[in-house]
Amino acid sequence: MGTNKNTHVPTDLQESRKTLVPGDETMQILLDWKRKPDWEKNAGLDLIDMDEDPVDMPVNNTGSHQETVPQAPGRAGKDPSGGEGSQGAKDRLPPEEDGAPEEAWEEGKKREAEDWPKTERVAPAENVPEDRADSLGLEEEDPLEEEEEGWGEEDGSPEGDGAWEEDEGYEEETDPFQEDGNNPNKAVSKGNIPGKPPKKDAPGKKNKMRFNLHLILLATILLIAGTAVYRLYRWNQGTPIEDLDTEEVDPSQFDIETLDMILPMDASLLAGREDDGVTTILCLGNNPFSDNRGDTGLASLIAQKTDSVVYDCSFPDSSVACKNATYSPDYPRDHFNLYYVVQWLRNNDFSAVTTIASQEYNPSFLEAAEVLQTVDMDKVDVIIMMYDSTDYNIGTPSDNPNNPYDVTAYTGGLRTTIEAIKETWPYIRIFVMSHTYAQHLDDEGNLQNGTITDLGNGTLNHYLVKESEAAMDCGVSFIDNYYGTINEDNYAGYMTDYMHYNDAGREKLADRIAYVINNRMGVVSSTTSGGGQ
What we know:
By secondary structure, this protein is α/β, with parallel strands linked by helices. The protein has 21 helices and 13 strands. The strands form five sheets. The protein has a five-stranded parallel beta sheet, with helices on both faces. A two-stranded antiparallel sheet has the order 1-2. It is elongated. The protein starts with 10 loop residues before the first helix and ends with a helix.
């Protein structure tokens, strides 16, 4: 507190402000004394009534360098004999200052020690002699000043986190020497002491560090997300290869993992059957065979490459699945589908199929029906089934999960037919040749990539997978033409349009099946193979 050299607020009053309560009479007296001008304070000994015991503040009226001494509340203004005024104050002055007897000084100290308020902090008086300050237990440094200098630490208190909370009665304490600007008689609470910002308004280093870490974390997340979006965009754009010459690269030379599954024949299934020394092959299917029945046709090429007798019993635009589960006159073409063709062979009755074939505009139907009647199934060694993408194009369901033998589904018609062949002619080897890559011609005349175009029942390669699974379930060999023969990379050189083959395409297909027939027609014992063709 700012005072001149010869005017001091008694130290005990400085300390008593820690326990004063607004509205207290003592606090009002102190405020009144504080408002007095310096000349009135220095005019003489100013006695201040505090309840019943006055407080005296000895002042050097002569301007000499005589020290002032803080007095204990409750003892000021009364001497040992009960008198009032400066005499009581003189009793408590050091003996070397006023010449009082040593015994009176000791008695005064004893009374002061008994009545002096017990506080944890004692503010020193600047002008108290060093030996007197020691006897009163005064410290050399003002802890209030240390508190003020300590403000601005991490949590806004001089003693670290929770210092003010540990000080009992902190919220209730007020400073009688700090006036409110609007009401000079109103004490200011300690939480609003000027120069000491409230704890909530004085963020420390920890809060600043937390705030900064949040910003850093947010910036890092945004940076990672932005980088991922940018890389995904660049990946979708691709990288043009300008200097690479791909004209002489043959994609067919690359290693492609196919779905081929070639099974040997179970020797027990051949028991009792005489080998006539001639390999007889029956071809069942649609356009891959029926588009060309001449010397450059697929059946003729297979016969040439395998030195076999081949019967071409394929019907144009037919399918693996049937349109109806039971025959309906409304759709007579079901007679040309795979399931019904095998039924004509099993029943050895071709009258119905011949009649219906004769009514078709394409003579290839009748030609196939006539060949079908000449086949001797007792001499047939191999049956080759190959259908193009017709089932995919007309929207035939790829399978029926509730009925794996549903003939109106692609795999159901295949399973039912294979099981019928194996039951009737168990000694015949069956090779299922898959469709090749193809495109779909939509209603607007646009070509769609079969690998990625779903017409409602899966993409074209989805039909491939289902076909391979059905062949595996039935225990027959499967040849993957979709990836292993004519695929998306080389189809342009082997097809005349989106689904039909040229001479080169049929040649390639014949080479594929001929290699298997010539090199992989093995026979194994049933005890070794555990079953099979």
